[in-house]
């Protein structure tokens, strides 16, 4: 079964020689990109989709979400907008609501959120646990997540639950909880921050996860300067996400190790912290990703286009750099080579925009510009 997409006004494939080309066409065979070239040279195919001059981009790769939770924290958001600061402890509000919801309700909520992401052009998504904080609920969250994506992350070490001391909880996370959750997870994550876990606790969690085959990623330097980024670099983590407060030594360590700096501007939008300086990172040779961090506390957006627009307006990126971070960057963060681009051999995950150019993602913020989404050609 082959499908040709013809009359593409602007195709972003991230091909090395022609990353963005005009007047293009693309052919999909069995869910994989089989041919990319000039519109006039397109080979015959079983089915034709006419893009009618629109732009085509790779599907977004959202490398950081907390999609599985119950409850609502809009009152906390409203209080912040009236001047209250964000505190990590708000996570416990969502934990209480999530523990009270059953598997069916959590699945229903997460499936609806995933549909919301998909409708906005996200075709690969990472999903974390972290709103259970007991063995049974963390395991349940990862069971639900693994029904929805291959990119599942064990974040038992989100905060310490009210019923345990920090040391008892770290013992649980690195012991029984890890044993029960690891079969459903690819990644292990920790919130390394004042009010959550310190460097030694975070190192213990990530090392225990790595010992059973999970790959580390870290919530690092979100609310203030701290050890998270250095720890991610020390342990060879795939990503240090947030990276809002970085010393020069943090930036150098990221550049030297190749750890991907994950930027989550929905968080700064929703907490009124300063935006991370993406320009400084790119200029230093750091690999970056942009993701939504979709969660009820600090960033309840499912829109990668919104995050791209923020990155352009507030973080010093060009529209092309921001789109690259939201596609290739996310794929790099998830150690995936089959998504995030549309070169021959890629999974045919793509978005036909209701716009002539990818620039419109930032030029027309808040406007629904997704016309068609294909995942593996369907
Ligand atoms: O990525 N930083 C830690 N976790 C989430 C916030 C969770 C919450 O407040 O519910 C984040 O921002
Ligand atoms: Fe997060």
Enumerate the spans where pLDDT stays under 50 for 5 or more consecutive residues. none
Number of domains: 2
Second rung of CATH, namely the architecture of the largest domain: Alpha-Beta Barrel
Would you give the CATH topology of the largest domain?
Answer: TIM Barrel
Order of helices and strands: EEEEEEHHHEHEHEHEHEHEHHEHHEHE
Query: What's the total helix number?
Result: 13
Question: What ions, cofactors and ligands are bound?
Answer: N-(iminomethyl)-L-glutamic acid, fe (iii) ion
Q: What global shape is seen?
A: globular
Structural features:
378 residues, alpha/beta, Urease, subunit C, domain 1, TIM Barrel, 2 domains, 8-stranded parallel β-sheet, 22% strand, globular, binds N-(iminomethyl)-L-glutamic acid, binds fe (iii) ion
